[in-house]
Specification:
Layout lengths: L13 H5 L2 H13 L6 H10 L1 H12 L3 E3 L20 E2 L1 H5 L7 E7 L4 E5 H17 L7 E5 L4 H13 L2 E5 L5 H11 L3 E5 L1 E4 L2 E4 L1 H10 L5 E5 L5 H8 L5 E3 H6 L11 E2 L3 E6 L9 E5 H15 L7 E4 L6 H7 L7 E6 L9 H9 L3 E5 H9 L4 H4 L7 E5 L5 H11 L4 E4 L1 E3 L4 E5 L13 E2 L5 E4 L10 E6 L9 E2 L6 H7 L7 E9 L5 E6 L13 H8 L5 E11 L2 E10 L7 H14 L8 E4 L13 H8 L29
Helix pairs in contact: 3-4, 4-12, 6-7, 8-9
Pfam families: AMP-binding, AMP-binding_C
Keywords: ATP-binding, Ligase, Nucleotide-binding
Protein name: Acetoacetyl-CoA synthetase
């Protein structure tokens, strides 16, 4: 697949490469260890072969703030259970609040047009006051504090105040239904809940108060619910809170707390920092616990080296607080950059809204999803023609594989001179296995490189690392940002079952992928969604890539249907308004797929649907649709943004015919 991809779409100049932090780090490693690593490929290999030295050097380069670092970098080296920096003592919030000046730290933009900003000094003061209030409420090290919040300044302040104490932060976005919230927070028993009284989405104001009442009633552990005004004024929020059990308005919660200087609890490297949740479409979500040190080091590595994030940058990622990209975004504070927090629909009131914001805020690193880029192209938007985008130097994309056409669209219609970095990892590691690199060329359909210090390989069925062949994406050696474990998994069996069943002591991530000859990575889809017609494995991304070329199709989802002792490929399509799926369009779709893949990729059935079910973070749920088609239950529909869409796939007569 990489053979027809010989020409890069973008290449940095030698001068641009030399100016990056990645290249600065390479030169520093050479000098420190009397090496002669010539380029990224050699730096990557060294960082995997000499993991302890690499992570130790990164700690120094990042100037990690810690009361104790300790001599040892890696104690027990097992997966799971590796002991990185076993003697270190540090605090996550202290590292994110290292700057305390007048530079803008956070810009908040809501869909309704409201805008707020906070300097680093103001952020520190806000965190100090809220941490005092949490301490007065009895929050201690190891307690859980939850956020049912939009992506706003108050959410960041609450996370930093929580983690300054050594307590554990967990969050989901306010578009989750009651059962989705209970399935998550009910498992981890938070002591304090931060919750918005409402929020804005797609031109509507959504009232959260009825759900807040029910959340408190169902989760006994919540001692205090702090209600944050978003859709109401502070006064209206105070009035509304009077009728809620165990609730207090944010201003009153902070105002009643005694003065207390901000202190940073020094914890072990592997002290719990975040509890995050798997999408949970096949059962109750897994509660994935991430540690302070591994999260911090990995995010600083990805921001500074792989994104070249500096103090004069403005970083934006379109995300909700229920997706790990929010946690990733917020760590940008450790670099001293300005972060733009946006909450709302990216297409309201118009498709160019986020690009207006990019110009107005001077965004230099713009992060989004592959789904957004595909939808933007289908909308006919050409930001390059309508916007200046002077500061923009990098576009990041994740959530699903970005198709070749998405790459070409960015360079043709957004900006010619940007580093387009498709990135891939996930909630499981709160970071990336493969991602961008400002020193490397960009090839259509490929993630630029594997991350430093991560022994990422693609293995065939025999457990051998392969180049230029498809297989399972694994990480063959331990790394600092592995989860500490799962909450309520005392014997570790759920954790081991999730990642280590295929090969003992090797992390199998569940992606079907390929490492290319020039060191890039292609993701073909989730391993559990791989199609298997006639015993040949096909990644769904290979089909989506072709379907995106068909102008009439807005969206699609592909599954394998068990049929006559084999599997047949079934493609469901959402069409543009007014377009009907007739024989001519079916043939056009099939011909497009056949022309660029193989006959096995061509769907046996193409069926029009009105909607495609997605998780709240926007990922299509192939397994859920496959279950519905085969008459099996979908256990946790609360994880879906539009669970009603599943009904569209029940008992379809076309699927009972040859």
């Amino acid at each position: 697949m990489s053979n027809n991809n010989a020409q890069p779409l973008w290449q940095p100049t030698p001068e641009a490469i030399a100016a990056t932090q990645m290249d600065q780090f390479r030169r520093r490693v050479n000098e420190r260890h009397q090496l002669n690593l010539a380029d990224y490929a050699e730096l990557l290999q060294w960082s995997v072969d000499q993991r302890e030295t690499f992570w130790s050097d990164l700690w120094d380069y990042a100037e990690v703030i810690a009361s104790e670092r300790g001599e040892q970098v890696l104690g027990k080296d097992t997966m799971p259970g590796a002991e990185w920096f076993p003697d270190a003592r540090l605090n996550f919030a202290e590292n994110l609040l290292r700057y305390r000046d007048d530079k803008i730290a956070l810009v908040e933009r809501l869909e309704n047009g409201s805008r707020r900003q906070l300097s680093y000094a103001e952020l520190y003061a806000r965190v100090e006051r809220l941490a005092a209030a949490l301490a007065a409420e009895g929050v201690e090290q190891g307690d859980r504090v939850a956020g049912f919040m939009p992506n706003i300044i108050d959410t960041v302040v609450a996370m930093l105040a929580t983690t300054s104490i050594g307590a554990i932060w967990t969050s989901c976005s306010p578009d989750f239904g009651i059962n989705g919230v209970f399935d998550r927070f009910g498992q981890v028993q938070p002591k304090v809940l931060f919750a918005c009284e409402g929020y804005f989405y797609n031109g509507k104001t959504i009232d959260s108060l009825p759900r807040l009442r029910e959340i408190v009633a169902r989760i006994d552990s919540i001692k205090k619910m702090v209600v944050v005004p978003v859709a109401r004024s502070a006064a209206e929020t105070k009035a509304a809170v009077d009728s809620l059990d165990r609730a207090v308005a944010l201003d009153d919660f902070v105002g009643a707390a005694p003065e207390r200087a901000l202190t940073f609890a020094q914890t072990a490297f592997n002290h719990p920092l975040y509890i995050m949740y798997s999408s949970g479409t096949t059962g109750v979500p897994k509660c994935i616990v991430h540690g302070v040190g591994g999260t911090l080091l990995q995010h600083i590595k990805e921001h500074r080296l792989h994104c070249d994030l500096k103090r004069d940058d403005t970083l934006f990622y379109f995300t909700t607080c229920g997706w790990m990209m929010w946690n990733w975004l917020v760590s940008g504070l450790a670099c001293g950059a300005t972060l733009v927090l946006f909450d709302g629909s990216p297409f309201y009131p118009a498709a160019q809204g986020l690009w207006d914001m990019a110009d107005e805020e001077g965004i230099s690193v713009f992060g989004t999803s592959a789904k957004y880029i595909a939808a933007l192209e289908k909308s006919g938007s050409k930001p390059r023609e309508s916007h200046k985008l002077e500061k923009l130097r990098a576009v990041l994309s994740t959530g699903s594989p970005l198709a070749h056409e998405g790459f070409r669209y960015v360079y043709r219609d957004i900006k010619e001179d940007v580093c387009l970095s498709s990135i891939s990892g996930g909630t499981d590691i709160v970071s990336c296995f493969a991602l961008g690199n400002p020193t490397l060329p960009v090839y259509a359909g490929e993630l630029q490189c594997r991350g430093l210090g991560m022994a990422v390989e693609v293995w065939n069925d025999d457990g051998q690392a392969v180049i230029g062949e498809k297989g399972e994406l694994v990480c063959a050696k331990s790394f600092p940002c592995m989860p500490i474990g799962f909450w309520n998994d005392e014997d570790g069996s759920k954790y081991r079952g999730a990642y280590f069943e295929s090969w003992p002591s090797v992390w199998a991530h569940g992606d079907y992928a390929e490492v290319t000859e020039h060191g890039g990575v292609i993701i073909y889809g989730r391993s559990d969604a791989v199609l298997n017609p006639g015993g040949v494995r096909i990644g769904t991304a290979e089909i989506y890539r072709q379907v995106e070329k068909v102008e009439e199709v807005l969206d699609s989802i592909c599954i394998g249907q068990d049929w006559r002792d084999d599997v047949r490929v079934v493609l469901f399509v959402v069409l543009r308004e007014g377009v009907e799926l007739d024989d001519a369009l079916i043939q056009k779709i099939r011909a497009t797929i056949r022309a660029n893949t193989t006959p096995r990729h061509v769907p046996a059935k193409v069926i029009q649907v009105a909607d495609i079910p997605r998780t709240i973070s926007g990922k299509i749920v192939e397994l859920a649709v496959r279950n519905v088609v085969h008459g099996k239950p979908v256990k946790n529909q609360e994880a879906l943004a539009n669970p009603e869409a599943l009904k569209l796939y029940e008992n379809l007569p076309q699927l009972a015919e040859d």
